[in-house]
Every structure is written in structure tokens, then in C-alpha cells.
């Protein structure tokens, strides 16, 4: 039997069910949890980077880091869609808030083009 | 906008993205998780853009004779970070709704936004550098 012919079942095909949705999710949940942890680490790095010139804003961003980490660990992969949507909305609000704080720091802090006094 | 369907009004999108509507079914968890990872990756990109913009404004020395140069380059990156984050959430909702309806996944606009803005910022940086060197 020549490889690649239709009547040549490859070893992997034997394990596949007819409906692919019956396959176990494998490492998808673990990869997603790691993605959440990378995101939390990024928040921490941003907070640390902001600490030098904007200590208050930096501390606030650092405070968000455990929240993001907790979202990954305490909301399970099988959470209902509404809970999933809410936690992603929370991440969006957090990132947008960091951007607003960074914008304020860029425009109003020392050397910025807009002077408050 | 859609790669093959899935473009709806924002009102319809909001309604149809809610599970439990007629014809909707919760998608395979692997697709849901992959969609979530894509959203998180875009948000890490957004945070990197914000930090890059803030770093340009606060850490670079001022350009000679172009006092607004650092802000002209850095502020658009911070704004882009916010835009990327919000757009990533909206696209996550659109994709989740398309998965529920077993429709084609809509094409993302984020790469276009990212390429356009970064190209503009790069061009602006070149102009600022030239002006500060020539004047």
C-alpha cells in the first residue's frame, strides 16, 4: 500500500471521532491560562515602568496585576458566556484606563506641552 | 468587512451575541478559548504600545529645535494602544457571535489599523529627526 493513497489510513486517523467536537480540548485551556498569565505579567511590567516618573499611576497599574492573575485562576474555562464577556470587558477597561493615565502623564507631567499651572 | 458574511448592525450584533437566541448554540470550547487568546494577545500589544509611547515622551532626550517632537511621536502610540484594546473586545464579541451562528469569522481590522498608524508614526519620526537635524 502506497502512502498518501485514499485507502491508506494514517495512524492519527484511527483516533479521530466522526464529530471533531467530541475531541477533548487538550492543552487549549492550559494555553489560555498561560496567555492570561502573560497578560498579568505585562500589566506588572507596565506598572513598574510607570513607577519612576508617575509613582501613583504606577502603583495603581501594579494593583491591577493580581486582579488579572485572579481572573485567570478563579474564573474557570467552563464559565458561562456572560462571565467570560465580563472578564474580557474588565481587561479592556483596565488597558484603556492605563492608556488614559499614560496620556495624562505624557501631556501634563513635567516637560509636557500642557501646563496645569 | 466580513470575510464571507457576518457583518451586522451593532444593535443586531449586541442582540445576537447573547447566547440562547434561536439558532444560536454555544461553540466548541477550543474555538472559544482560541478567540480569548487572540483577544489577550491584542491587549498585550496594546499595553506594549502604551509603554512605548510613554517611554518616548518621558525617557528620550528632547529633539534639538523640535520641542514637540517627542509628544508628536509618543502620543499617537498611546492613543493606538487604547484603540487596539477597545477594538479587540468588539472583535472578540463579533467572532463569538459568528461562532455561535456557525457563520464565517469576520475579518479583523486591527492589522490594518496597526500597520497604518505605525507607518504614520515612523514617517512622522523621520520628519522630526530631519527637521531637528537640518534647522
Task: Explain briefly what this protein structure is.
The complex is a heterodimer of chains A (117) and B (135). Chain A is an all-alpha fold.
Structure notes:
The complex is a heterodimer of chains A (117) and B (135). Chain A has helices at residues 28-51, 55-74, 81-108. Chain A starts with 27 loop residues before the first helix and ends in a 9-residue tail after the last helix. Chain A is mainly alpha-helical and 117 residues long. Chain A contains 3 helices and no strands. The longest helix of chain B has 32 residues, at 69-100. In chain B, 70% of the residues lie in helices and 0% in strands. Chain B is elongated. At the A-B interface, helix 1 and helix 3 of A face helix 2 and helix 3 of B.
Tell me the count of domains of chain B. 1
The proportion of residues forming helix of chain B, as a percent range, comes to: over 70%
Low-confidence sequence ranges of chain B? 1-17
Order of secondary-structure elements of chain B: HHHH
Give me the oligomer status: heterodimer
Query: Beta-strand level of the residues of chain B, as a percent range?
Result: under 5%
Q: What structural class do you assign from the helix and strand content of chain B?
A: mainly alpha
Rg of chain A computed from alpha carbons, rounded to a whole number of angstroms: 23 Å
Shape of chain B, please?
Answer: elongated
Query: What number of domains of chain A?
Result: 1
Helicity of chain A, as a percent range: 55-70%
Amino acid at each position: 500500500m502506497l502512502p498518501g493513497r485514499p485507502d491508506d489510513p494514517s495512524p492519527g486517523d484511527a483516533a479521530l471521532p466522526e464529530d471533531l467536537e467530541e475531541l477533548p480540548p487538550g492543552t487549549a485551556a492550559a494555553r489560555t491560562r498561560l496567555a492570561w498569565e502573560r497578560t498579568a505579567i505585562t500589566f506588572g511590567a507596565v506598572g513598574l515602568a510607570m513607577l519612576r516618573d508617575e509613582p501613583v499611576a504606577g502603583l495603581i497599574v501594579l494593583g491591577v496585576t493580581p486582579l488579572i492573575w485572579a481572573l485567570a485562576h478563579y474564573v474557570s474555562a467552563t464559565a458561562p458566556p456572560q462571565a467570560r464577556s465580563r472578564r474580557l470587558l474588565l481587561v479592556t477597561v483596565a488597558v484603556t484606563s492605563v492608556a488614559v493615565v499614560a496620556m495624562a502623564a505624557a501631556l501634563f507631567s513635567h516637560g509636557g506641552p500642557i501646563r496645569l499651572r | 468587512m466580513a470575510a464571507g458574511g457576518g457583518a451586522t448592525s451593532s444593535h443586531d450584533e449586541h442582540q445576537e451575541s447573547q447566547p440562547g437566541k434561536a439558532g444560536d448554540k454555544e461553540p466548541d470550547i477550543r474555538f472559544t478559548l482560541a478567540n480569548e487568546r487572540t483577544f489577550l494577545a491584542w491587549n498585550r500589544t496594546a499595553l506594549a504600545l502604551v509603554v512605548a509611547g510613554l517611554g518616548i515622551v518621558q525617557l528620550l532626550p528632547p529633539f534639538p529645535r523640535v520641542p514637540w517632537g517627542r509628544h508628536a511621536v509618543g502620543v499617537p502610540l498611546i492613543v493606538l494602544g487604547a484603540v487596539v484594546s477597545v477594538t479587540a473586545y468588539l472583535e472578540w464579541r463579533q467572532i463569538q457571535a459568528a461562532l455561535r451562528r456557525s457563520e464565517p469569522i469576520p475579518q479583523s481590522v486591527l492589522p490594518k489599523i496597526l500597520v497604518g498608524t505605525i507607518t504614520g508614526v515612523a514617517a512622522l519620526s523621520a520628519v522630526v529627526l530631519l527637521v531637528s537635524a537640518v534647522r
